[in-house]
Design a protein that fits this description.
Blueprint: H1 14-25, H2 31-39, E1 44-47, E2 53-58, H3 59-66, H4 71-82, E3 86-89, E4 94-99, E5 112-115, E6 120-123, E7 138-141, H5 152-170
Antiparallel strand pairs: 1-6, 2-4, 2-5, 3-4, 3-7
């Protein structure tokens, strides 16, 4: 595994942040609802399966893939490995990798689940990028531009490898 120990920093202008918010909120028929929730500092509920989908990853899988549970290390490895945005919801022990709308082609894994059409995901404001920002969720790997998504082939390979490692440790 990659041993990156520092997170990738993506300084964005306000115009770039607005473009990203528009793109994310555009998954809804009423994007202004998400923008209002973010403006209040809250989590916005976004629709999956049209502009983007997500793969829900358990913390044990992510920690096996990154060989660490230290947030700074996990962030660096995920940024390098997935090359796209990832949310972390510590209160429920899940990571969410944003992917193209087509389902990835991995074999069944009890540690990962594709979330597509007819699924909604709570998404924090773009500014929440630190684990100390709250247990409800933060961007472990922030969105860098509209259309920024994880590489499905890399995600599939890492889910398969991490799942094998976890199954091996259970026997």
């Amino acid at each position: 595994m990659n041993t990156v120990d520092t997170p990738v920093v993506h300084p964005l202008t306000e115009a770039e942040r607005e473009a990203i918010r528009d793109w994310l909120a555009g998954s809804l028929n009423r994007p202004h609802v998400a923008r209002r929730q973010w403006a209040k500092g809250g989590i916005a509920t976004l629709a999956l399966g049209r502009r983007y989908s997500a793969v829900c990853l358990t913390e044990p899988l992510v920690y096996a893939m990154t060989e660490s549970s230290r947030p700074i290390h996990v962030t660096g490895v995920l940024a390098s490995a997935f090359q796209g945005p990832v949310l972390h919801a510590p209160s429920i022990g899940r990571f969410y990798a944003f992917t193209p709308p087509a389902a990835p082609a991995w074999r069944h894994s009890p540690y990962a689940e594709y979330l597509g059409r007819d699924t909604y995901l709570g998404v924090p404001p773009l500014e929440l990028t630190d684990p100390a920002d709250g247990l409800d969720g933060y961007w472990a790997v922030p969105v860098t531009c509209p259309g920024d998504l994880c590489d499905p082939a890399r995600l599939t390979a890492l889910v398969a490898a991490g799942s094998l490692e976890l199954r091996g440790s259970e026997s």
